[in-house]
């Protein structure tokens, strides 16, 4: 979805070693930089310190974004975000700019944030993680502890909610969601449920959204529509994991009993 609004800036993606060669090749067709990062590498002194805190492994992976020092400024997006409109204006903001979290607005949501790559900052946050951990066990708790002045700092570092709208929590603010929907720039499918985990009918290209998430059915369908139009044809069966599985979908074709059973897994 990043390419669709025509961004003026380069795109970079961080990938773990487990990402297949076939997937990396596809990513290189989309992103300007495909950078591999290791979760825990015993050859790296900073990573070695985190071996004593294995629960922070995934969190540490996200911190690698500060090592993209070939760039002066970056906007980080979680992999479960969906860009709906051009958001280049975010580069006018300074570190650390982020939108409030819907569950506790005095904290920012770390799914979208503006930052300045720096090896010094990377080292400081890594050391902070070793010493203090994270109050929620993830990167959001860690980053809110490190950038603990966000709630009371320059208001310019508070991004409007339209840059990080929690898709599945929209029922909590449904009237406002309906009022400002056309202004939403970035959707965030935060939480355990993801669009790609929802049952999908490949014959009519329809997501079968569970009743309890009916308020977000059109958002889930939007994700699948973008996937069908822009991503599916790029997937091959030699890709590992979910990508390889999704490559098996036969869009628009009448499903065989075997295909129906496969899609219900």
Automatic annotation (TrEMBL):
User: What organism is the protein native to?
Assistant: Bactrocera latifrons
Q: What domain of life does the UniProt record list for this protein's source?
A: Eukaryota
| CDD domains for this protein | GT8_Glycogenin
The kind of enzyme this is, by top-level EC class, is transferase
Similarity field: Belongs to the glycosyltransferase 8 family. Glycogenin subfamily.
Q: Which InterPro entries match?
A: Glyco_trans_8, GNT1/Glycosyltrans_8, Nucleotide-diphossugar_trans
Q: Name one GO biological process term.
A: glycogen biosynthetic process
List the GO molecular function terms: glycogenin glucosyltransferase activity
Report what the protein is called: glycogenin glucosyltransferase
Catalytic activity, EC:
2.4.1.186
């Amino acid at each position: 979805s990043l390419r669709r609004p025509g961004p003026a800036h380069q795109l970079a993606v961080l990938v773990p070693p487990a990402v297949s060669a076939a997937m990396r090749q596809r990513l290189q067709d989309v992103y300007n930089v495909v950078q591999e990062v290791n979760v825990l590498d015993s050859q790296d002194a900073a990573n070695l310190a985190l071996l004593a805190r294995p629960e922070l492994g995934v969190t540490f992976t996200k911190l690698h974004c500060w090592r993209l020092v070939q760039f002066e400024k970056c906007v980080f997006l979680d992999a479960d975000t969906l860009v709906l409109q051009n958001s280049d204006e975010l580069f006018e903001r300074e570190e650390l700019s982020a939108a409030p979290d819907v569950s506790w607005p005095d904290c920012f949501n770390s799914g979208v944030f503006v930052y300045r790559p720096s090896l010094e900052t990377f080292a400081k946050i890594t050391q902070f993680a070793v010493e203090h951990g994270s109050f929620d066990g993830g990167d959001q708790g860690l980053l809110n502890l490190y950038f603990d002045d966000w709630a009371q700092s320059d208001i310019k570092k508070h991004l409007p909610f339209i840059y990080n709208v929690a898709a599945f929590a929209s029922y909590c603010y449904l009237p406002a969601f309906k009022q400002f929907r056309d202004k939403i720039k970035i959707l965030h499918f935060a939480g355990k449920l993801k669009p790609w985990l929802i049952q999908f009918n490949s014959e009519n290209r329809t997501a079968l959204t569970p009743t309890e998430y009916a308020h977000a059915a059109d958002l889930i369908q939007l994700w699948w529509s973008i996937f069908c139009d822009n991503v599916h044809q790029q997937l091959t069966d030699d890709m590992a994991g979910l990508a390889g599985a999704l490559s098996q979908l036969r869009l628009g074709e009448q499903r065989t009993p075997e295909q129906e059973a496969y899609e219900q897994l």
